[in-house]
## 1
Amino acid sequence: MRTPFSPLATLLLAATLLTLTSAPALAAEKAKLPNIVLLISDDQGWTDYGFVGSKNVSTPNLDKLAATSRTYLRGYVPTALCRASLSTMATGLYAHQDGITGNDPSPKTPENRLKMIARHDKLPSLAKILGKAGYVSHQSGKWWEGSYKRGGFDEGMTQGFPKPGGRHGDAGLEIGRKTMTPVTEFIDKAVKEEKPFLVWFAPFLPHAPHNPPERIFKKYKGKHPGGIAKYYAMCEWFDETCGTLLNHLEEKGVADNTLILYVCDNGWIPTERGRYAPRSKRTPYEGGVRTPIMVRWKAGGVEPAIDKKTLVSSIDLLPTVLAATGLQYPAAKSPVKKLPGISLLNDARGEEAICADRVLFGESFAHDQKLDNLFQTLQHRWCIQGDWKLLLSYPNGGAGQSPKFTAELFNLTEDPAEKVDLAKENRKKVKELQKKIDAWVQNSTPYTTKSL
C-alpha cells in the first residue's frame, strides 16, 4: 500500500515540476531579449556624414547603418555639453532632473567632484535597469560618473575619479584610438555564455586632439584648411571604429537581434585653427544640439527609412530600450515617476507615427556647475515644434520666479543656419512657444538633494 503524499510534499513536488518545465521556457524567453549597443560620437557636426549629404567627409560604415535603420535627421540632444548630454542618455532625464548640468564643479570647490559623481548612485540608469533583467554590460569611451562599476556596468575601462585621469574617462578614452579589443572580447564572452548584453561605446572621437592616422589624413590634406582637414579625418576615423564593432556583431551572428542606437553627444563646426566655431558645441543652436539619431533592430521589425521631418531626442533612448526589452522604469527609486521621453519603436516599426505636433525641449547651463542651486548657472531654454524654434537666453541665470530673458525665433525649414531672428515680427508665436517652455519647466520635477 502506497503512502499518500503529505500536503507539504505535494506542494514541493508541484513546485519542482513547475521549475523543471518552465526553465526551458524562461531560457528561451531570455534568449529573445535583444542586445543593446549605443554608438555615441563626440563633437561631430550634424551635417558631417555621407548619408546626410556631406561631400567633405567619408562615413561608409555609418552610411550603411543609416540605410538599414530608421534614421531621424531631426534628432537633438537636450544639452550641448558632453557630461550633461551623456548623463541624459544614461538616466533618461533632463539635466535639471538628474542634477548633472555641467562638466565640472566650480574651481572654488573642487572637492565637490565626488558629490557630483554621487548623484548617479541613487538614480535608475540604463546599465542598472538592464542588469536587473540579466543583461551583462560593458562601458568604454567617455564616462564622467566615476568608475564603470558605479554606473552599473559589469565590465568597463574607466576607473573614474579620483584615479589618475579619471575626470571623464581615463583608460576608457583609449577605445577606438588605440584598441577595439576590450569591446570585441566582451561581445565574444557574452555570446559564448548566451547572455543578452549592453555595450556603451562612446569613443573620444572625433573629439580633439585631432590627430588622425596619416593613412586617413592624407585623404583630406590639401583639400581643406589644416584644422578642418584634420577634423574631417577624425570623423572618418570614428566611422572606421563603428565599422569594426558592427562587423563583429555580424561575425558573431547576433546583429539581427541587436538594437543599435546611434547619437552624437553634441555638435561641432570646425575652424582652420582646429577649434569649434560659434553656435556649435556648448550652444543651443542647431550646430550644438542637432544630431542624427538612428534605430536599427531587424529582429524587432524596425523598418529602414530616412526621416527628414520627425522630431526626436536623446531623451527618447532609454524609453526605447525599455520598450524593446519589455522592462519597466523603476519609478519608485526615482524622483521622476515618469520618463519625459517616448519610445521610438512603434514609429520605427511603421506601426504608429510620432505626433507631428510634438514639442522638443532643451536647456544650457554653464560649464562649471554649482551644486546648491542648478538654476543659478542656467543660460538658455529652448523648444522646437514643427518648423519653429524658440530660444530663450537668461543673462542673469534662471533663479527666481520670473527670470529675465531675451528671445530668438527661427524658422528651421527656411533658415536651418538660424541667421534670421523672427521674434519681433512674430510675437504671437513667441508667446505661444514660451508658454510651452513655462509648462515644461513647471511640470518637470527638478533635482534636489532631498529628492533622492
## 2
Amino acid sequence: MSIERKQLESARRILSHVADTLDIPFSVRLWDGSRAPLGRDPHQQFFLLIDGPRTVTTLLREPTLENVVRHYAEGKLDLAGGDLFSMMDYLRKHDPKKKVKRLKKSLILREALPFLFGSTEKLKTKHTFSKDETGLHRKQADNSDYIRFHYDVGNDFYRLFLDEEMQYSCAYFKKPENSLDQAQRDKLEHICRKLRLKKGESLLDIGSGWGGLICYAAKHYGVRAHGVTLSHEQHRWTLDKADREGLKDRVTVELTDYQNLKGSYDKIASVGMFEHVGRKNIPAYFSKMNSLLNDRGLMLHHAITRRAKGDSKKFDKIGPGRELIQKFIFPGFEMDHIGNTLTQMEVAGFEVRDVESLREHYALTLQHWARQLEAHREEAVRLVGSEKYRLWLAYLAGVSFVFADGNLAIHQTLAQKRVKGPSGLPWTREDLYR
C-alpha cells in the first residue's frame, strides 16, 4: 500500500474514533473528496476541508494556533457550508470539550505514524508585520508603522464591512436587532451627550479615524472639532468628508502623533486608539490629555480592556491569540485592565465621573463586520488578496467570540480635569437618555 493510501486510511480511522467519542455534529472532507462524519448525526451543511496529507503532517509536527491560522489563510484548511458564526454556534450547542479526555491517545498516535514520517510544507504568510510586532521595545513616538500597517490596508477594503459613517469602533445597540448603521449613529450621539457638547466649544478627537465623530459633533452640536491620525488613508478620507458635508470651517484634521499637539480644548474624545499607546506609555498619555484640557474639561475614553491578573507579569504575558493578532493584523496593540486605567487617569489629574461597559455591544458589532466582509468576499479578495481576506475574517469572527465569552471587555470612561469645587455636571444620567 502506498504512503498516500496509508495516510488516507489512517485519517479515516482517527476521525471514526473522534466521531464515536466526541460526537461532533459535522463532517470532514478529505483530500480525495470523501467525507468522514465526526458524529452520529452530522449536519449536512457544515464541514471542514483538508487539502492534503502534507497539511496533516505539518500540523501534527507543529500543533500551534499560529500554524492552524497560516493553513487557513493559505486555504489548506477551510470551512464550508455556512458562515463562521453559524458553525461556531452549532458547535457550542454540542460542546465536545468535556469528552476530549476520553480519546485514546495510543490509537491516535499509532494511526498518526504514516503522517509523522510524511513530507511537510513551510508556509510563509505574506501579510505579516516585518518588525517588532509586540511594540514592547518601541519608543513612545514610534507608532506610525504600527498604525499604517493596520489602517492603510485601504479605504475601499474598510468600506466593505463598516457602516456608512466608517466607524471602526464599538457600536451602541439600543436594541440588538438594530442595524449597524443605526447603532453607529447612536454611538456617536451617545458620546456627544456624555461629553455634554455645547455650540461653540472645541473638541479634540485623538485617533479620529475616518472623521465620523468630528463631523457628527460639528454638524449636530455646533462645535469646532479637530482630529488627529497617523493614517494617510484616514486623513485623506476625513478631508474629503468635511468638504462634502460643508464643514471645512468647523472641522480640521492633522496627520500627526498626539504627542505633538499643543493648545487647549473644552472636550476630548479618545475612541478605539488607546490600544496603540502601549502600557508603559499610559502615564505620559493621560498626562498629555490632561494638559490639553481646559479646567473642568471632559474626556471620553473608549477602550478595550482585559481582566486583571494577580500580578503584572501574568497580565503582560503574551498569549497565542494576542501574538497572532499582533503579527498579522494589529501590530503593537496592548490592552490595559480597567482598574489600572482609572488609577492612571486619577494620577494624571482627572476625576472619574462615569464608567460603562459595552462588552456585548462590541461582540455584536464585530459579528456585523465579519458577516458583511464575508458577504463581500469576491470584492475583498480582489482588493487585498485571498490570504489577507481570510486573516481578517478569522480575526473579526474570532474576536467577536472572545467578547461574547467575556474574555475581553470594552469600557467608556468619562473623566473631568480636576478642579476644586463643584463639577458643574448633571447630578444624574437622565440627560443622556432623553
## 3
Amino acid sequence: MQRFIPINREDDLSKPISIQDCLPEGHLARYIVEVVESIDLSNFEQHYAGRGSEAYPPSLLLQLFIYAYATGIFSTRKIERATYDIIPFRYIACNLHPDHDTLAKFRKRFKKEFEEVFVQVLRVAKETGIAQFGKIKVAVDGTKIHANASRHSAMSYAHAEKIEAQIKDEVLKLMELAKKAENIPEGMVVPDEIKRREDRLASIAEAKVKIEARAKERFEQEQAEYAAKVQARRDKEEATGKKARGKEPTPPVAGPDPKDQVNLTDEESRIMLQSGGSGFEQCYNAQAAVDVDSLLIVTLSVTQDANDKKQIEPTLEQLKELPKDIAQPEQLLADTGYCSEHNVKSCETAQIEPMIASKREQHHTPVLERFADDPPALQADATPMERMKHRLKTREGRKTYAKRKQTVEPVFGIIKGVMGFRQFLTRGLENVRNEWNLVCLAWNLKRMAALRP
C-alpha cells in the first residue's frame, strides 16, 4: 500500500509563518540588506523635503533594485508584483509594496548617489576581506547592450528627405481634393489626413536637424584631426628636408552623410554591429574595468561609440578618481580593439602598465610558442608601443595577459546569460548610464555574497 505525507490545506496553510524563517541565513537578500544598511545613504535622504505623506526609506528601495537586478527582474511593474509574490522581495520590502511609479522615479531621480554607493560597496568588499585591492590589475572590455528602441525606428538622412518629399506631395494632393470637395473616397476625413501628415513632417524635420547637428560636430572634430595631420606632415618635411612619403591627408567633407541616422524612439542610441554575426542592432556600448583577482567591477561607463579605441582615457580618469585606499591600478589588460599608440602613452602617463594586444590572438597557439623563451632585451630608446609589445611576448607577459579572458568576459557572460540583462529599460544616455550602474552594483554584491568567508 502506498504511503504519502498527509496534507491539510485548511490547517497547514492557516498557520502563521515568519518570512524571516523562510530565508536561509546565507541568502543573497539577507546579504544585500546587511551591506546596504551598513553604508551611508545620507545623500539620498537629503533629497526628501519631509512634507506630504511619508516616503519609503531610500535603503529599502535601493535594496529592492539591487536584488531585482541580481535575480533578473528589471521592470518596475514586475518588482512591485514581486513584493507580493516572492518571499525574498517581501523580506526586503518588510511586507510593504512600493508601486511601480515610486520605483521608476527612484531609479531615474538618483544618479550621482548611485555612483557613490558603488564606491562604498567596493570599500565594504575591502574592509570585510572579500577583496584585497591595493595595487591591482584590471581587465577592461565593452559589450553591446540593446537600447529600448528598435533599429526599424531609425531614419537615415537620405530616407528622411525621400519621405519628406513624398509626404509634401501627398499634402498638396489632399488640399486640392479638399478644395474641389468631390471624388473624396468613402471614410476619408481630409483635414485629419492632412494633420497626420503635417505631424509626420514635423517629426522628420526634427530628425533632420539632429542629424545635421551631429554631422556638424563630427566635421569640426575631423577638421581638427586633419589640421593636426597636415601640420605633423609639414614638421616632418621641414625636419628631414624631404617630401613626406604616402598620400596627403584627405580633408573632411562638411554636411550629413546620406547614411547618417537618428532613432526616433531613443535618439541617443546608435546602430552597432553585434558580436557573433547577429547583425546590426540599436545599442549602447557598456564598458567595465574588472579586478583580475576578485572579478569585482571597479569602474563602469556607457558610450555611444561602437569602437572601443576612445574608451581607455575615460577609464584611466575613472581609475584615477578611485580612493587610494580602495585601489591603485598598476596594470591594465585589454584586447586589440583598444590598441593605439595614444592609448599606450596615456597608460604610461597615468603610471599604469599597459597590456593591450596589438593583434588578434590565435585560438590554438602552438605549444612551443607558449613555452618560448623571453625575446632579447629592447634598446633604451624604444617607443612605448615597442616596450608593450616586448612585454607581451615575455613568459610573464603572456601569463598575465591570459587572465584577461577569464576576468572581464565571464562577468559580461553572467550579467547577460545568468542575470538576463540584455536590454536597457530606460532611454537616453544619462538614464542608461544610471541603469548600468545598478547592473554593476547588483553584480558586485552577487559576487561578494559568493566570496564572503
